[in-house]
Amino acid sequence: GHFYAIVDEVDSILIDEARTPLIISGPLDDRSEFYNTIDTFLPKLEKKTDFEVDEKQRTVTLTEAGMEKIETLLRDAGQLKGETLYDVENVSVVHHINQALRAHSLFNKDKDYIVRDDEVIIIDEFTGRMMQGRRYSEGLHQALEAKEHVTVQPENQTLASITFQNYFRMYAKLAGMTGTALTEADELFDIYKLEVVEVPTNVGIGRMDEDDEVYRTQDEKHAAIMAEVERANSRMQPVLVGTASIEKSEMLGEYLLKHGYTQLEFDKPRAMDKLYAAARAGKPGKLFAVLNARFHEQEAYIVAEAGVPGAITIATNMAGRGTDIKLGGSLEVRSQIETADIADEAEKAARIEAIKAEIATFREMVLNAKETAEIEPAKGAKPAKTVTRPGGLYIIGSERHESRRIDNQLRGRSGRQGDPGRSKFFLSLEDDLMRIFGSDRLDSMLTRLGLKEGEAIIHPWINKALEKAQQKVEARNFDIRKNLLKYDDVQNDQRKVIFEQRVDLMKSENVADTVADMRRAFVEDLVTKHIPENQYAEQWDVAGLKEELQRVIDIDLPVEEWAKEEGIADEELLNRIEAKADEHMAAKVAQWGPDVMRYVEKTILLQTLDHLWREHLVMLDHLRQVIGLRGYGQRDPLQEYKAEAYNLFEAMIANLREAVTAQLMRVEIVPPDVQPELPPMEAHKLDYNTGEDEMAFASAALAPPTAEQIAARDPNRPDTWGKVGRNEDCPCGSGKKFKHCHGRYA
Fold first, then answer.
1. Which of 10, 36, 147, 488 has a C-alpha 20 to 30 A away from that of 306?
2. What single DSSP character describes residue 209?
3. Which pLDDT tens digit goes with each residue over 135-166?
4. Is pLDDT at 320 greater than 80 in this prediction?
5. At CB < 8 A and 24+ separation, what contacts does 221-226 make?
6. Is the dihedral of CA 64, 67, 73, 75 positive or negative?
């Protein structure tokens, strides 16, 4: 059960990840050619004239001109049904066009995803790591595959889904830990009822966090970062440059290469040896390493050695890297690599001691890599002030992230356990955060104030303004998660009912009573529909009732004759129909035996429930996408969604009763050797996903073995037994039935 959960990096899981629900999916029909066809239209559309992009809301919409252009392209390609794009037959076409537009306009290669081995792999925006096996839903991933011209995988449909919030709220006790939860304390309490307690650091923090430097353009910012890296490298201070995406980390790497720096080659053994050699010589080696999803395998090695004197590490999002950066380098990592080829234990121990001594020397170098600088006074102020900036690991942020926590995680890599350190962020008005959240006015104001090229603004007020912008984004993301949760709560109530029922069904040996109740409820609904209460017998729809009973229950009943009887009431009619249906079912039980029918009943009930629940989830997804339009009619979309979802759920339960009754009343279990021909199709149930006959495996499992198969069985070798009937004597010779011996469920 769900007793307690302890979550590591709790903010990452319960907050960052909680914007998208957990989904179990299954494949749908392959429509890869259609995605490729749609993708060929996209380069022919022009931004602003044919479609508009809202980066703030992350939406793309076609303009009138764009719609006309797409309609013409679709008509020429023979993909348009009806006259216009918005005819009901083209609903899925519109959906695919919107997803293709999103793929081209909002998702960037090497930032949101990378392409590797003919595959589009999502990049986690918070950790910069590859998310193998995860795919965007609703055709978006296929649109990205078509955009990048890799093999388009079949589309998936949702089989089951739950939000992180509702999943973790199932636990009676929930707790977790992280270094950066304080900024999200309100959300953690509001959603999960978790209180945040700040634990004081083991040792006082010796890190200097400096004010941000804001430049007008990206180029000016990169030049400033380059100059800062040069200065730090000249005094052998290790530098960790944090970026927000792979694209930005590689851009900075190219910038360093142009300025005479060399990138360490991690595809070759002992890649760090050059860095150690430069540190021993006490001279800047001008060597740098890039850590992002492309070099995922060397992650621990790169991070562990980021504290070596003169090391320059460019990293994408340092959240949750799981490796501590120790000043001077990591004894564990170095000794593991450098003693791998040494067989002699004494020699190995001597080598480890030598590495330990060298790391101690390196640590002293890093601690002494201080910077003394004079701060120029403002006009009319006192003389220049001299400041000493500490050594240790120097963190340089190349831009602010949407969330303050991610910036704090980057800063927190320096100044561990009381070590000295520095951190500083370099920003430009062209950065995503600044650009999306209103830097136009700021840019024109700074130009009027006479900010020259290469000059930066440095002021605590700027830090405050940036923090406010980040708070706005965090609040917006919180609203997205809260809204997602409100809608999922509706689905969650239904999910609880279905899954509780499903667990009960799986645990119970006999579902005959459940099936009988479903059959009677269905018959009752049918009679009520065709013979409403307080109506004269002449007004009864007897023909319709007879037809429906024939279609579902598969028995021809003389309903018309019964209805003509003097003084017969609807209740009497209902009792007769129920009695005939019960007789029909009892005959099947007598024919095939109670054990066989109990197995078939349970199988059909569970399969039908799963199938209808899957369809119900798809319906709810579609409802979610359009329910917002009810807002134009001055109605609350959430209340409307609740009402509609309830109606859909009721309809699903009614469908379940009908489908289970219909299949069980019609099911035929025929051994293949008795009747080689296939039974009529309507007596079976096709799975619309796979095209397979869902009853086929039940028939095959229940078919008795032939005399040859029985003769070939060796009691000591279960691999020779083949398929054994549940009620057969076990071939091992124990004298028990197979289901109570070797066929017993674990």
1. 10
2. E
3. 887 788 889 999 999 988 887 777 788 888 88
4. no
5. 221/398, 221/426, 221/427, 221/428, 221/431, 222/251, 222/252, 222/255, 223/454, 224/426, 224/454, 224/456, 225/252, 225/255, 225/396, 225/398, 225/426, 226/255, 226/256, 226/259
6. negative
